[in-house]
Each structure stands twice: as C-alpha cells, then as structure tokens.
Amino acid sequence: MRSHAKRLPGRPVILLLQLGVLIAFFLIWHVLTDTKILSPFFFGTPGAVLARTWADFASGVIWYHLGITLLETALAFVIGTVAGIAFGFWFARAPLVSLVFDPYIKAINALPRVVLAPIFALWLGLGIWSKVALGVTLVFFIVFFNVYQGVKEVSPVVLANARMLGASSRDLFRHVYLPSALSWVFSSLHTAVGFAMVGAVVGEYLGSAAGLGYRIHQAEGVFDTVGVFSGMLVLTIFVVLIDAGVTMIEKRLLHWRPQDTSGGQH
Question: Is residue 44 part of a domain?
C-alpha cells in the first residue's frame, strides 16, 4: 500500500529553516523596539544585545563567569546522570525496592527545586557545590524515570529467549537491558542538559560571587535590560552547543538504531 505521507526535507534545508526562524525573531524584535511598540528600556534591542555579547567575549570579561557556570553544569549533569542511571536500573530490577520507595521518590520529585537552593547554600556554602547540588536534583529525576521506564519496557519474549540461550545476568544487562534503556537515556539527556544549566544559573542568581547567573542578577539590580538579555543569549548558545554534543554521542552509540527518514511513512 502506497503511503501518501510527504518526505521530510534534508538536513541542510532544516538548518536553513531553523536559521530563518532565528533571523525572523530578531527582525521582529528589532522592528517592535525601533518603532517603540516595545520600549527599548524594558526589552532592549537586538543590536545592543549582540554588541554587548560580542564586547564581553572580545574583552574576556565573560570567560571566567562562563567557565564557572559550565563547570557547575558539567558536574551536575554527570553526577545526576550517573546516579539516575544507577538508581533507575536498580529500581526497575528490584520490584520490592520500587514499591517501597515509590511514594517517597514521587514526593521528593514534586518539591519545587527553588526552595532547595537556600538550603543547599546553607549546607554547602556559596561556592560551586551548592549550585551543583541543585542541578543534580533536576537532572537525577529526569534520567531516573526514563531509565526506569526503559528497563521496564524490555520485551518479556526477548528476555525469555535470552535466558533459554543461557544468558547470564551480566549478559542480559549488556545485551538486552542496556540497549533497551539507551534510547530512553539519551532522550532524557537532551532535557537534562538544559536543566543542569538551569540549576547552576538559578543557584548563582540566588547567591554567588561568579557565574552567568550572578552577572544576570547584577544586571537586573541596575535595570540593565541589555545585560540581562545578553546573559540569556550566552546561556542559550551554550545549551544548544552542549545539546549538539549529546546528539553526536547519541548517534555514535546508537548507530544500530534505524533512522526515520520517511517523515512518517509506514
């Protein structure tokens, strides 16, 4: 039966369309502020934001603060991911443990993370570790629930066949559970990258002496809208770059997974 679904355009076309959306956003922003429909004092202007961002990078003033935020993000991402994967596999393979701790996991996950930021600052000080701890609480649950679901989704038929062929627990983990969970893991990592940086920046915003969140807080304190938007632009750029790195790793590790290039054909 012939499918009537249209094929998606190639990667170069997609990139051009994405770039077009970005250019359109800046053009609309420019027109609205240039015509004073939006006040430049409250919304800045794209030209001023880009100029400030370029000047900060050219002068080197941003690099120290960016390095602090990226270090906190990386630590939160790695620690939260490793812990999420380990506990996700454990809970999925130990039904009794899962049943006992299920209400506590859900209760902790429901806590607003911003409330925890002052507590972490009190426990760990105003250095990087209070920001890392906040980021870990965001990353952990995203990865944990995805890994848990990925392991639980393993086909019982596949498990039964593997056991019939004499697969040990280690073989099952390596050849059945891990491949099944990897897709779920990387799906969660794309979200976790952004949340790791959110945790770092929110922690810096609430109490710090360095980092992009600290710079944004300083700019807000003097009503420097351009500085605020410049900091947000830098954050956006590096989240996109880190996510692109995760995508490259995902493609290398999941090269066996069939790619959907049909645009929804069946």
Answer: no
